[in-house]
Amino acid sequence: xxxxxxxxxxxxxxxxxxxxxxxxxxxxxxxxxxxxxxxxxxxxxxxxxxxxxxxxxxxxxxxxxxxxxxxxxxxxxxxxxxxxxxxxxxxxxxxxxxxxxxxxxxxxxxxxxxxxxxxxxxxxxxxxxxxxxxxxxxxxxxxxxxxxxxxxxxxxxxxxx
Length: 161
Fold this sequence. Notes:
The protein has 2 domains: 1-51, no CATH class; 54-161, Substrate Binding Domain Of Dnak, Chain:A, Domain 2, CATH 1.20.1270. The chain is built from 6 helices and no strands. The radius of gyration is 20 Å and the shape is elongated. Residues 1-18 and 47-51 have low confidence and may be disordered. Helix content is 82%, strand content 0%.
């Protein structure tokens, strides 16, 4: 019997069944594989979101709870939270840079520019134009998670007042 925690064992059986069956069964097999991959991606995304929950706003948690798993609603929640986290990131950056020496300011500017490039490149990888709604969620969640983590990192780097 296949455990729901072992999708890698299920895929070969699904593939074998697809080769022996008629075209409609192969289509069902393909759809099943896609659904398994999407569920694994979403489940892993939920685990990542749970680890960063303390970085996210209560509005975000409430919005995601209300979304009912509907992709459009979830993307809207992510977009709204990304706006909040981006504002927090900018605020933390301005506060941190104002408290740095001249040399450290230059280093922080370079580090932030490099991070911005990395975030874009990294999250563009997650968003596969042919990946459907799961890829859109993955890419958007990447932007949100990385932004929230960086905002928290910059806040943690601030010297005590």
